[in-house]
Amino acid sequence: MNLKRVTVGVAANVYDKLVIAGVQLLVVPVLAVHWGVEGYGAWVILAAVPSFLSVSDLGFATAAGNQMTMLAARGMHADTVRVFQSAWAVILTSSLFAVLGALLIVWSIPSVAWPSFSSMTPYSSRLTLSLLITYAVVSLQGSIFMAGFRCAGLFALGAFWSANTILFENVCMVVVVILGYGPEYAAATLVAARIFALLVQNLLLRINVPWLKIGFEKADRAEALGLLKPALAVLAVPLGQAAFLQGSTLALGAALSSMAVPVFTATRTFSRIGIQLTQLLTHAIMPEFSAAVARKDRRSEFLIVLLTVSVALAVALPFAIVLILFGPQLIALWTRQLIIPGRELVALMALTVVLGGFWSPLSNLILAINRHAGFALPFLFLSAATIPMTFVCSRLIGPAGAALSVVVLDFIMCVVIVKQAKTLFYRPDDPLQAIAGYLAGGLTRLRFWH
């Protein structure tokens, strides 16, 4: 394979990000208009809880996907199948225990301790949360199938179907909401749509990667144990993301009220479009970076790092400027004047776009070679610290306090990632000469896999 595959992968990733951005722009105003701001705030709070279940795969999907990609790059298909089936066995088992445990907790909490929402009955909120928990755990199964597409050099196909899945399930949910149904029906729609999408994804993998046998006959306990260390390190990443994305939402609601949550989450959702756009190249190029490192292709390794950072900052800086200048007006227009954030909140979230747009792509390259333990645990601890920081700062300066805690997190992570990147990534003695040679040779000479 050559640069063409990366280009197609980037195109698929562009489509994926456009779908995610479009869905976010569609869902927020629809839910806020049909359920009211308080009803939408209740949905955001309930949806925040299942996000913590994203760790119930124990990090095996990501760790296994990286390992599978490096093995497949060396032509070791039998070993790739063994890793795939071993990881999936662990994911299915852990997911089952996670969903059963979470549902038991939801329905065993006494009514006096259950949070009350004026827009939902206690039974409705319990049912909605149970369905969202089921949706979160079912969605995890697609991650190991995506690893199958990645290791076979079919990232573009996997990303394309992943985007279609998000589009399909959210359009179905929006239709249900517009028809006048409440949160429990919206959550049930997400579950049904995701199950259908997983069945189609399974079929696509069988057709396009026939050598990657789907099943458990090759699952191996020793292989699963070998993945345990990088998997546990991966585990810290979604835990950290849940802490600063959902934990800060819960802390803000506790510090102020559910009415304050939509102002922050709508602004954060809008700003994170910029973060997602910085990933246009990164996700497509991660398999190529894994292969380059596995083959000891130092030249490609250096150029991938350089290209990743350059593209990310080229996207993040203009987006942040637009957000600072026109953010409040754009968010007000987007939400039909229901949500109008303050300038200080928008400015802080714009800063997170620049900081996150720098360290996040670099961290993904570190993750692609299963060397992420160096930043995963610091990220988890720092993300957890944003929860009390959000509570305290929000008490002092309102919703902008939640944004301030994210700025602190992103700044420290920039320092952590740069320090680790210096020790892991290859740097030529004369980077400028290496870049000049690359440009003189032409882009078509860059070959990742032979």
Please give a handful of descriptors for the protein shown.
mainly alpha, 2 domains, globular, 0% strand, 450 residues
Characterization of the model:
This protein is mainly α. The protein has two domains: 1-226, no CATH class; 229-442, no CATH class. 80% of the residues lie in helices and 0% in strands. The protein has 15 helices and no strands. Helix 1 (3-48) crosses helix 10, helix 2 runs parallel beside helix 4 and helix 11 (298-334) packs antiparallel against helix 12. The longest helix has 46 residues, at 3-48.
What is the strand and helix layout of this fold?
Elements (H helix, E strand, L loop, with lengths): L2 H46 L11 H14 L3 H32 L13 H30 L3 H24 L4 H26 L12 H6 L1 H28 L5 H18 L3 H13 L3 H37 L8 H26 L4 H25 L2 H25 L6 H11 L9
Spell the H/E element sequence: HHHHHHHHHHHHHHH
Overall tally of structural domains: 2
Give the number of DSSP strands. 0
Terminal residue distance? 6 Å
Structural class: mainly alpha
Radius of gyration: 22 Å
Measured by DSSP, the beta-strand proportion falls in: under 5%
